[in-house]
Design brief:
The complex is a heterodimer of chains A (112) and B (113). Chain A is mainly β and 112 residues long. Chain A has no helices and eleven strands. Chain B is globular, with a radius of gyration of 13 Å. The chains are: A mainly beta (112), B mainly beta (113).
Chain lengths: 112, 113
């Protein structure tokens, strides 16, 4: 089955700096790669996603890049703010109707 | 807010008991997936229901079972609870064949003593 690895497990940055989280996947049939943000006591919130026919996608301060050949994808957050502090999960899926396979998460702390 | 609701929010059971968790999907969504999230881990896929039929299952034993109703709400049932079943149980709804996005509810925190 699909194996998703996520690094780093913890990340601490100063407000205004950039944060990068990286994931690799094993199933070459995976074609959908969402990122979720989970705050304490809440369910995961979808923040951005990318499909295999696209190499990069951006939404304001958040961007995701995908390298299908190398089977890795990354989340980039620019101009970080304290409210960006949370646990971030990457996931991979074969698409509609298939399970999401999650990484183990990255705990991001943005200090003022 | 995603519009996905779950009940109850917290639950405490003892080993060997049975539990039923409930999920109401987002309006217009016909697919519900259930995940188990142990402390400090990513969610693990339990199973998915599409139009009242099981549509895929992860590596969980048969004592984990589910139902989906005509209004697309869903239940997760766990029999013969074990200590390791203590976790956050998440349901996610999606529009099935239309898109891939899965939207999660707030979860039910199950503690097994």
């Amino acid at each position: 089955g699909e194996n998703v690895e996520q690094h780093p497990s913890t990340l601490s940055v100063q407000e205004g700096d950039s944060a990068v989280i990286k994931c690799t996947y094993s199933d070459s049939a995976s074609n959908y790669f969402p990122w979720y943000k989970q705050e304490l006591g809440k369910g995961p919130q979808l923040i951005i996603d990318i499909r295999s026919n696209v190499g990069e996608k951006k939404d304001q301060r958040i961007a995701v890049t995908l390298n299908k050949t190398a089977k890795h994808f990354s989340l980039h957050i620019t101009e970080t703010q304290p409210e960006d502090s949370a646990v971030y999960f990457c996931a991979a899926s074969r698409g509609s109707g298939y399970a999401l396979n999650f990484g183990k998460g990255t705990s991001l702390l943005v200090t003022p | 807010e995603t519009g996905v609701t779950q009940s109850p929010t917290h639950l405490i059971k003892t080993r060997g008991q049975q539990v039923t968790l409930r999920c109401s999907s987002q309006s217009g969504h016909n697919t519900v997936s259930w995940y188990q999230q142990a402390l400090g881990q990513g969610p693990q896929f339990i199973f998915q229901y599409y139009r009242e039929e099981e549509n895929g299952r992860g590596n969980f034993p048969p004592r984990f079972s589910g139902l989906q109703f005509p209004n697309y709400s869903s239940e997760l049932n766990v029999n013969a609870l074990e200590l390791d079943d203590s976790a956050l149980y998440l349901c996610a709804s999606s529009s099935g064949g239309v898109g891939d996005e899965q939207f999660f509810g707030p979860g039910t925190r199950l503690t097994v003593l």
